[in-house]
Amino acid sequence: MPRTPGAGGGPVLIVLDGGLATELQARGHDLSGGLWSARLLSEAPGEIAAVHEAFFRAGAGIATTASYQGSLAAFAERGLDGPMLLRRSVELAKRARDRVGGARRVAASIGPYGAALADGSEYRGRYGLSVAALTAFHRPRAGILAEAGPDLLALETVPDVDEAVAMLAAIDGLGIPAWLSYTIDGERTRAGQPLEEAFAVAAGQEQVIAVGVNCCDPRHVPRALEVAREVSGKPVIAYPNSGERWDPVRGAWTGPSRFRPESLCGADFAGGCCRVRPADIAALAAACRG
């Protein structure tokens, strides 16, 4: 169950971590290139473990692995052992969990096909591939991650209903619970489908323990969670970005952060994505304890 009784008898929301890549960049790492944070699985694995630990110590109950953009093809193109590095992503999060202790869990990140293209396609969807082709892409990586023994699978930043269907097919039979999280724009997926259609694919899927949104504007979370709960009948999850925007001309983030714990009220699982740091997660965890 996503909620358990607190000391006062009330529900306790499960806190997720924040932006892994954001924190790695803050520690001085260059994540440019097609592998993004997965590049450090080879070059600086200890730094990934350190960031996981920082989020755990801030109050996160679940760490999401650095496998989001690590496709097998991308690793192979660089002469890297993809299966080994995917397993390492889970091992690093487990290492951080063991160092901090307590009842914490590890979610293995499975990003969308567009993430592997490293061209922003995950914010558009509609790649021109069939559901069968997308399933074939996701299944090997999902199997490798599952064999590494995470507690959960995170099907995240999904822009398209077709890809959600494919990802659910790819994890079928692996025996590990998963959440399904879309990236959205207002009340539609990035590919333009209504949220009602998007969340309906999880209804009746026993392996899916939560549905919701991530890597989106915090302002779009409340309505999305209403629809997710109503349509899917599942617990709901939200981990939005800070609300800042990337200016490609200036090469900088602009605008204020709009990440507020109260904007995540109503979620069963809540955390942050891009630009959400350990201090933000600590504030969220404190709000949950309150």
UniProtKB/TrEMBL annotation:
<dbReference type="Pfam" id="PF02574">
    <property type="entry name" value="S-methyl_trans"/>
</dbReference>
<dbReference type="GO" id="GO:0032259">
    <property type="term" value="P:methylation"/>
</dbReference>
<dbReference type="InterPro" id="IPR051486">
    <property type="entry name" value="Hcy_S-methyltransferase"/>
</dbReference>
<feature type="binding site">
    <location>
        <position position="215"/>
    </location>
    <ligand>
        <name>Zn(2+)</name>
    </ligand>
</feature>
<keyword id="KW-0808">Transferase</keyword>
<dbReference type="InterPro" id="IPR003726">
    <property type="entry name" value="HCY_dom"/>
</dbReference>
<keyword id="KW-0862">Zinc</keyword>
<dbReference type="InterPro" id="IPR036589">
    <property type="entry name" value="HCY_dom_sf"/>
</dbReference>
<feature type="binding site">
    <location>
        <position position="274"/>
    </location>
    <ligand>
        <name>Zn(2+)</name>
    </ligand>
</feature>
<feature type="domain" description="Hcy-binding">
    <location>
        <begin position="2"/>
        <end position="288"/>
    </location>
</feature>
<feature type="binding site">
    <location>
        <position position="273"/>
    </location>
    <ligand>
        <name>Zn(2+)</name>
    </ligand>
</feature>
<keyword id="KW-0489">Methyltransferase</keyword>
<keyword id="KW-0479">Metal-binding</keyword>
<protein>
    <submittedName>
        <fullName>Homocysteine S-methyltransferase</fullName>
        <ecNumber>2.1.1.10</ecNumber>
    </submittedName>
</protein>
<dbReference type="GO" id="GO:0008168">
    <property type="term" value="F:methyltransferase activity"/>
</dbReference>
